[in-house]
Amino acid sequence: MGDRFRTRALVVSRAFTQRSMRSEPPEEVGRVLVAHNLLLGDTVMLSPLLAKLRARYPAAELTLLASPAIAPLYSSHPWGVRALPFRPSDISTTRALLGLGPFDLAFVLGDNRYSWVAAAMGAQHIVAHAGDRPWTKDWFVDAQRPYSSSPTSWGDMVADLADGPEPAPYARGDWPAPAARPFERPAAPYVVLHVGASTPLKHWLPERWWAIAQAFEKRGLGVVWSAGRGEEPIVEACDPGKYFPSVAGKLDLPQLWQIVAGAQLLVAPDTGVAHLGRIAWTPTVTLFGPGSALLAGPGRYWRDTPGRAVTLDPFACRDQRLLFRREIEWVRRCARTPAECAAPRCMFAIDTAAVLAAADALLDRPRPLRQPIG
Predict the structure, then answer these.
(1) Residue 145's beta-bridge partner residues?
(2) Which of these, 114, 96, 95, 98, lies nearest to 106 by C-alpha position?
(3) 372 has a pLDDT exceeding 60
(4) What is the DSSP annotation of 114-160?
(5) 0.90 cut: is pTM over it?
């Protein structure tokens, strides 16, 4: 019997102890919980909801569940948020949460199964997006809100779960830099090229990463390679001679924030690190292959942040309409696995000229770029 099964049994028993029937919205809100089990990028995109909740309930205690690796990013308490580590496969994180209630109000994001966690933590009124399945996930959900019927970003849809005026657009400094352990920093000025991603289908060709690295060096900028733990071979494929320094696999997220925040520019696939660039206010070029530049884009909340999306849209096989198991008419994305897609044509179709043109636009150093792919 693994921790995930024990966690589920513990949550189910505690949820039925804490909750017996659906409830109406509370008249007074002193404690708010945001529950989920999302990856880095989607977690960061909960920021519009956090900002909206802080404006609506200025004196409330805001608690966010987050992966243990992600929680340290919130050590600076943006919007007064307290982040607590939660990982379903680690029962100790669940046990640590269950005595922290009650909460007047809870919001559940992505997978509605985490409404059971919210109920187990004593949430009195739980709000989630409609349309998840099976229906048992919604047993303790008191209010279900539909996804937007018109094209918008995931962050804006998340904010729409809460009643009240739209949050003010993100401004530089709204999320103060988290504390980070000392580490060796690169010499400025430099750009960060983050080559890793959650799926190989978001990987760009190594020779194109090398081509833009050389182009940035010619522009008088240092280059720093970045990737997650276990992704060091991706950097080696891009730079087999180890010409430029690499921080791949060496940094935790607060340290990576510091590296990104100090950069003149970040270039990354559509992955969580691209969202770090957004909240650190670093000019960021994001390469969208299978993902949607609309769903993961700035939307209304992030509209003032310095960034450019590079993508080919429409792309024939970016044709799936599912988002967290909900079918949405206007969504166009691809969540296929490497077993279903032998090579990411959508990523390979992005050429170096397009990436460098987007980079120069952000660096305010426009140049005529007409070099061929590769």
Answers:
(1) 129
(2) 114
(3) no
(4) HHHHHHHTTBSSEEEES--SSGGGGTT--EEEPPPSS---HHHHHHT
(5) yes
